[in-house]
Structure formats: structure tokens, C-alpha cells
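Minutes, structural biology subgroup

Action item carried over from last meeting: produce the C-alpha cell record for (2Fe-2S)-binding protein (Mycolicibacter sinensis). EB confirmed the sequence was re-checked against the source entry. Recorded below for completeness.
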Amino acid sequence: MDRPSYRLEHMLSFVFNAFGGARNRVTNLLNGVWLGHPVHPPLASLTTGAIGTTVALDALSLLPGQAATETRDAARFAERALGLGILANFASAATGVTDWQHTHEKDRRIGLVHGVLNLIATGLYIQSWRDRRRGRHLRGVVTSAVGYGITSASGFLGGALVFGSGIGMDQSGERLRIADWTPVLPEAELPADQKLKRVEVDGVGVVVCRDGETVSAFAGLCPHLAAPMEDGWVDRGRVVCPWHGSQFNARTGEVVRGPAAAPLPCYQARLRNGMVELRNGAPSPLGVAREKHLTVQPLPCPKISDVKEIAR
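Output recorded by EB:
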């Protein structure tokens, strides 16, 4: 199964690259960057719900003792629900194959079987819809019921990918929880060349980098598939994942480019007394530089005559 799966991956790469400058926008849309969560699971739920509604209405339409009007109404609404399920299935397939493109080994094989089963089920749903339109109601009912059984089996495999392997889940790991500024690294060990360095703080891996006098700190694992972020790099203010190329804003952790959908957890960081210090909380969008003490000069109090002149 590996050879056809990698050929399919290469074909997907050619398809996405054909979008040119819009490639990142298209993949971000399909990966769910705009949502902060993969889009495939809710679309798959919509598909299953719509087809399940179709099967339930079909069962009602076949119950004995139903009036002709009730039977026609149930059949009509079942056909509409089936059409919605087919459309949702196409959208689910587009998002699912985009997520699958970045899986490996066992997960890739399970995902391939999952996709093939859904493809077969979609073909049965389309045939069922055509049969219903041509007046072959019973045949359409049987075909959609068989497709629904295949979709259920495929959903079991999809659940194994999510809950067994964490595909689509935030895998950035445990969060750092320190409320006070805590020294974690001597300033001399963090050169101002934007190279990433991993430190352990209270048993939690944190990656820090420095750009001049500004320090950034974020989680040690990529939210996508737990890649070690210290092996990545910084490019034009973006932290790049070393495995699949996900890009995050180095200051805020916001996803700039998928396949990651969840943001990269970031922390407040500063340079003080020759040490790099960290604490909880969202960092400033402009970053935190070396702490400086500012002297505030009081403004002179205006004269009463000046105030009267301004009022006039």
C-alpha cells in the first residue's frame, strides 16, 4: 500500500502547486487554519448525519400502514438529505486528503483505506440518488443503506486515527505554568542570530530564540504531529516546523501556514540582568525586549490665565 499512497501524495503536491501564489491560501483553507481546528471532522460528522437522516426517513417510508402522503413526504425529504450528504462527502474528502498527505507509515495506510471506503460509499450514494430520481425508490433505499454501512466502518478507522494516533489533535504537549518571571538561561548562551534553543522549565520543554534584544519563547513540540521545534528555524519572523513546513508567527504563535491548524503556544520572555526570563501569559505582539527603566517627567501645570485664554 505504500507505493500507491506515495504516488497519490506526489500527485496532490502537483495539484496544490498548480495554484501558484494561491497555494498557501488553498491549503490553509482545507487544513482549517482559519478555524484553529481541522475542518475534516465536522464535515465528516455532517456527512454521517445527513446520510443517517436519509436511512431513517427511508425506514419510515417503508413502514406498513403509512398514508400515501406521508410516504411521499418521507421519500422526498430522504432524497434531499441524501443530496446534502453527497455534497458534504465531497468537501470532507477534499479536507481529509489534505490532512492525510502529511501522515506516515501505519497512519498513512489506515488513512488510505479510510479514504477508499469513503470513495466507494460516495459512489453508492450517487447511484442511490440517481435511482430515486428515476423512480426506483426501493433500489435507491438499499443502495444508500449499504453505503451507510461502509461509511460507518470507515468512520471506525477515522476514529482510530484521531484517538489512537492523535491525527488532527493539538500535540504541542504540556503547557508551561509559571506566574512569576523565572530565569531559565544565561543570556550568553542565546546568541542574537535567531537560532532555536530548547530548555527544560519545570519539566516542560520550551524553545527560545533571540532577535537582537527581543526574545521569543514557545512550546517545544509542533501542534501538528509533535515535531521537535528546536530542529526548525526562523524565517522572516516565522518559526518553521522541521517536519511538514508549518509556519507560526514567532511572536504570537499564530498559524501562518498549515498543515498545523492549532496555534503554537507562546510565553512571555525578556532579558534581565544577563538572564533569559520566562513566565505565563500571551506575549506582546511586538515582543518583549531587555527590561528598561523609564523616567517619567511631570507635565507643567498651566496657568489660570492660559486656561481662560484657551476657553475664549
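Discussion: The helical segments are 2-17, 23-31, 40-61, 68-100, 105-133, 137-165, 304-311.
Next step: EB to file the record with the rest of the batch.
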